[in-house]
Amino acid sequence: MGWRGILGFDYGIVQAPLGPDISGPELVAAVANAGAIAILRAPDWECPDYLRELIRKTKSLTNKPFGVGIVMAFPHKHNLKCVLEEKVAILQLYWGQVTEDIVFQAHQAGVKVVPQIGSVEEAKHAVDAGVDAIIVQGHEAGGHVIGQEALVALVPRVVDLIGSRGIPVIAAGGIVDERGYVAALALGAQGVCLGTRFVATEESYAHPEYKKKLVEMSNTEYTNIYGRARWPGAPHRVLKTPFFLEWRNLPDHENEASQPVIGRSTIHGMEKEIPRFAGTIPNKTTTGDIESMVMYAGEGVGLIEDILPAAQVVKRLVEGAQNLIQQRFTSSV
Amino acid sequence: MGWRGILGFDYGIVQAPLGPDISGPELVAAVANAGAIAILRAPDWECPDYLRELIRKTKSLTNKPFGVGIVMAFPHKHNLKCVLEEKVAILQLYWGQVTEDIVFQAHQAGVKVVPQIGSVEEAKHAVDAGVDAIIVQGHEAGGHVIGQEALVALVPRVVDLIGSRGIPVIAAGGIVDERGYVAALALGAQGVCLGTRFVATEESYAHPEYKKKLVEMSNTEYTNIYGRARWPGAPHRVLKTPFFLEWRNLPDHENEASQPVIGRSTIHGMEKEIPRFAGTIPNKTTTGDIESMVMYAGEGVGLIEDILPAAQVVKRLVEGAQNLIQQRFTSSV
User: Fold this and answer.
1) Where in the sequence of chain B do the CATH 3.20.20.70 domains occur?
2) Which keywords, in A-to-Z order, does the entry hold (chains A, B) (predicted)?
3) Start-to-end C-alpha separation, chain A
4) Which of A269, B28, B84, B255 is the most exposed place for a label (fewest CB within 10 A)?
């Protein structure tokens, strides 16, 4: 027996689509097999054939449904077409406005649409477009953060907006364990979306040094110093590494385009140079000055104390939530 | 029957000490009579005789215990002495480090010490000094905000730190209704502290125009443009009023000391001029350009839809929490 599922999945737990390659087939299959909602991350450029390979590789590792996340700020028309052709369970969308047309196309293909939004206004647009669920991102989230408010106030406002329309609200940002999960449920959410916690798993494609830092470090900052040239106007939350603390006041006119190359990486099958201040986190293939690369993390990183198998993360959340509710709420109302 | 109380009070609900005069005897007595932890706000200057009058006036309005809040960034030695002499139930402290000596003196007088902190490090200092409970302020809070992280991640970290030492943790910031209350309990807190919700009550001493704005407006910003000369380095969260939006980029070198007077107010019995960019919210006595004065609010302000009697705020929180737990958690674990 588990905690209530949503969207046809066993649980209301979503693994956020994570940076290039981090939530690849291995992590996604592990999370899907555990009964949660796992999401591949589509490349930030048009490459539908590669994306098709990613999806099919994932299908070879699990019989369970899963999703694909697309960042709408980047070219994505052909990638989107591929996702619908492959009829994955969930199309996750971020950083761009969901249209009725996209929702219509997805529904024709039997794909559910789940945008991640950061404000009440954005939630309203998404609901009006006919989406199947909404991920509400709070300011406490790691990686690129569109949310300007914290979950404790933002989730209830979105829930009040959606009212009785039966669209699940999923809370994202700073949630790591069963306490965050149950808190989100209390706020009116029906599910939670976790990023940083899933980066710190055995199956994530993150560089071991990055995973180690997630366990060791506890503090983050909301900044815009990384990836300004490639994706301007996209602030993010990062670990306060020594490199970050040295450069956090990078002048506004400066960006990665004029910086020295500090490493190399294979990203979605392509060889890439990583300049200083690139928005590219180190993955398993990355070489060079790892400690000077961006390391995204949400505010909950101080609660991460170990690298776990992804299935264990899901299990702890579900069993932990049940125990917490039992101990704290069931006995003495 | 109520939700679990803390510190000898009926409930784990704290009314934050609010700006000069806002949580005066009338509001404090109303909250105390409702069974919650009500806190007078001591003046920001030494005036123990006036403070004694405030405490005694409150005692004339309620037989229930209540507290006094002192901002340690301002002169407070004599005020503190007065609070201990008057043996109020709770000494709330903010914006300064609690010492073992203060805790010892308070305990000698039978007064419990409850600091408001904004980080895990500050929580550790407070616990080591022997305090009776800790208010953890999240970044989503209104007024002056020392918290840099959101509650969803910060509360569990403080709870983990304090562990089994039996010291209640109280969550502050963005909490307005039973959803925030139960979420805080899920995160491991034993109580909640509400500011903005209590400003928007019938008994609060806030100017009617300020209360009206709290009902009408939904968005806030974390800023430092108000009160820079009087209390430097003290950022705050405010309503995004038209005045604020016009001046939010006030240059760093500018402050209220060189600005025109835009109104007058009686604050803790003293007549004051209010210059533009003063950190002084309009209270019932204030005249002048009310719309251009600072209006503190937490991120939860979008959930406030009415001006209520303070007792009604407490009742809704308690009954709402019980119903929410019953409906959402008790039936189907």
Assistant:
1) 13-203+306-328
2) Flavoprotein, FMN, Oxidoreductase
3) 24
4) A269
Q: Is residue B88 less than 8 Å (CB to CB) from chain A?
A: no
Residues A126-162: tens digit of each pLDDT: 999 999 999 999 999 999 999 899 999 999 999 999 9
Residue A164 confidence (pLDDT): 79
Decide if A35 touches B, using CB distance below 8 A.
Answer: no
CATH 3.20.20.70, chain A: domain bounds: 13-203+307-328
Mutate: best of A137, A157, A175, A179, partner B, most B CBs <10 A: A179
Contacts of B191 (CB under 8 A, 6+ apart): B6, B11, B12, B13, B14, B37, B133, B168, B169, B170, B171, B184
| pLDDT value at residue B300 | 98
Residue A205 has phi, psi (to 5 degrees) of -90, 15
Nearest to A240 by CA among A291, A177, A175, A305: A291
> Which secondary-structure segment (H or E) carries B171?
strand B169-172
Burial B71-97 (b: 16+ CB within 10 A, else e): bbbbebeebbebbbebebbbbbbbbee
Collapsing DSSP states into helix, strand and coil, what is residue B299?
A: helix
Long-range contacts of B275-278 (CB under 8 A, 24+ apart): B277/B225, B277/B226, B277/B227, B277/B228, B277/B247, B277/B250, B278/B226, B278/B227, B278/B230
Task: Report the interhelical angle of B25-33 vs B48-61 (nearest 10°).
Answer: 40
Residues of B in contact with A322 (CB under 8 A): 333
Residue of chain B minimizing CA distance to A301 = B153
Q: What is the largest CA-CA distance in chain A?
A: 62
Closest to A18 measured CA to CA, from A312, A324, A321, A297? A297
Looking at chain B, which residue has its C-alpha nearest residue A139? B150
Min Cα distance A259 → chain B (Å) is 30
The hierarchical CATH code for the domain B13-203+306-328 is 3.20.20.70
Decide if A122 touches B, using CB distance below 8 A.
no
Tell me which CATH code domain A13-203+307-328 carries: 3.20.20.70
Instruction: Please report the ipTM that was assigned to this predicted complex.
Output: 0.96
For B96-109, the pLDDT digits (tens) are 999 999 999 999 99
Three-state secondary structure call for residue A100:
helix
Question: Cβ of B140 and A120 within 8 Å?
Answer: no
| B168/A contact by beta carbon, under 8 A | no
